Amino acid sequence: MSRLALTFECQGCQLAGTLDTAPGKTGLLIISGGNELRSGAFSGQSQLAARIAASGFPVFRFDRRGVGDSDGENRGFASSRKDIAAAMDAFRAMCPQMDSVVAFGNCDAASALMLSGGEGCDALILSNPWTFDEGEEKPDSAAIRSRYSAKLKNPKELIRLITGKIDLGKLLRGLRDSFRPAYDTSSLARDMESGVSRFDGPVRFLLAMNDRTAQAFEQNWAHDDKRIERCNGASHAYVEPDAAEWLEKQILSFLRS
Fold first, then answer.
1. What is the pLDDT of residues 165-204, one digit of tens each?
2. Other C-beta atoms within 10 Å of 41: how many?
3. Tens digit of each residue's pLDDT (9 = 90 or more) over 225-253
4. How far is CA 158 from the centre of its chain?
5. What SS3 state is found at 80?
6. Domains and CATH numbers, the chain
């Protein structure tokens, strides 16, 4: 196994990619979220790719247009369909032994995969999909309930409450807000649902339960969707050791299925 840096073309632009080689016939294409580089936050995606490749599955990561080492204009996740398709073509060309490719995306990378209908992919792993319409990002009742539940279970916070170090009025207002009706399903979530409904391959949703993006997704999605797997105590990027191990196991089980 080795790690190779390379470039490939997307609509006249040169995109930068990294391939972790392995002999497996199923590959993992990692899509970066936000304006994140292909290495991921604190090299998290780079480290994940190395571990997945060590288990026998080739892994490809890339910077979309206008991000990191790639040319072109950054037009955001909703306009990254061509970038994903070009990366998929490059990945298949570099690893001709592959007969299937699983795409993994976190946050708006998952949303991008859903909006594109998973075009070119054989299976999808969708982590903490971003469902906020533009300009809509705001605290929601699920996030507030989660935050106050954690506080009320913390002995130190209870002592602060008993000794008068917590503003009782603020606490009561927060609890009131936590039970307000959920906001309407976002238009982005509806578009994502329409896109993923066109995809006929296997899909798995991964949710980090301490992440407000995941909490908002649950409010915008069918809670009883059997494709959802939840990781309690995990933050958005699964940086906790137990959460990182859980994420890796989820991806490997899906690649092996």
1. 566 655 555 555 555 444 457 899 999 999 999 999 999 9
2. 15
3. 999 999 999 999 999 999 999 999 999 99
4. 34
5. coil
6. 3-136+184-256 (3.40.50.1820), 141-178 (no CATH)
